[in-house]
Amino acid sequence: MATPNTPLWEVFIRSRNGLAHKHVGSLHASDATMALQAARDIYTRRGEGLSIWVVPSTAITASDPAEKAMMFEPAESKIYRHPTFYEVPEEVGHM
Amino acid sequence: MYTQALNTAEADDRSLEDAGRAAQFQARIDAEERIEPNDWMPAAYRKTLTRQISQHAHSEIVGMLPEGNWITRAPSLRRKAALLAKVQDECGHGLYLYAAAETLGTSREELVDAMLAGKAKYSSIFNYPTLTWADIGTIGWLVDGAAIMNQIPLCRCSYGPYARAMIRVCKEESFHQRQGYEIMLTLCRGSDEQKAMAQDALDRWWWPVLMMFGPPDATSQHSDTSTKWKIKRFSNDELRQKFVDATVPQAQYLGLTIPDPGMIQDAEGHWRYSEIDWTEFKQVLAGNGPCNRDRMAARRKSHDEGAWVREAAAVYAAKRQARQTAQAAE
Description:
Chain A: This is Phenylacetate-CoA oxygenase subunit PaaB. The complex is a heterodimer of chains A (95) and B (330). With 95 residues, chain A is α+β, with helices and mostly antiparallel strands. Chain A is built from 2 helices and 3 strands, in the order E-E-H-E-H. Chain A has a domain at 6-61: Ubiquitin-like (UB roll), CATH 3.10.20. Helices cover 22% and strands 21% of the residues of chain A. A 3-stranded antiparallel β-sheet of chain A has the order 2-1-3, with helices on one face. The longest helix of chain A is centred in the middle third of the chain and has 12 residues, at 32-43. The N and C termini of chain A lie far apart (69 Å). The radius of gyration of chain B is 23 Å and the shape is globular.
């Protein structure tokens, strides 16, 4: 029997309490349970994590890097969204 | 006639566009930007990296064999636990690297098949046998030491997924080198027989380890473009020299003699080694090293014997999926 390629999963790990899960890499596993166990064995051999998320790679929709200029243009021109855009006299002190 | 002329114009446009993209790509590399999987890249960059990263992955996996050979015969529980952890790390490194290679568009299955078919290479160093326990110390100290020398600059490689994988690998690799050196230190402080065993292992591994850095700069076929693309940051000979300079004092501390009577320290403090026997390197690369056939046979056997596990896992996943779909439909 020809075995289909084993699905790819993306692994996210929360390294410390209070931090967000962060992408650490990917792995192959045939189902979610095995993906979690493999993620533990591959990415947390030295206690790197408190919690693991595994997500099928096919479930991720990514923006196209070639379109990044257009994609992020709306934010480029809006410098008034930054605090440094506004003038506060020195006498007022830190704000 | 017109059609022809038009076609030519089109073809020219395409190559111009590619030349433009290639120039943009090189500009990004020159600006120390990282290239990510979905970014445009020249076909040759993709090909070079797929070859290099997959060979690196195969090396990690084959590298488990010479050391795995000693797990059941480690001299104490402490050594056994450390060796087991080290071999597990090598497996993990192989998997990080396969994942990085796959982002370039070739599946892990294809990469592994190419290796098992003998079409993809792995590091020649693993085609040497581990005859005594001192070989395990020497591998950690020298083979992993040489690997670290090679891999640290790769943490700044232009290809993002490879660079990130190398950062993880390097963090873990330093334990490997230290545990190897500790084994050597224990042997060198032991009986005369133990010290002789350590010297014998150094004698056998020294030259193959120097060959790990690859052919001399004058003859290396991949270096030029790899340097331009910032895949490679130092030349083979530069890294080899750095390694020798770092290793000589470590050997002196152990009281071991490096098997190179012609070695001298130059005015700048560099240890100048004698000519390397590249015919041996070529022989091992061509499949005629002491263990090439053994290693390939072990990999193929393990892959074949694991086939039922992969099949069972796939069938089980499909069955559960079908059940879920049926339940959802009810």
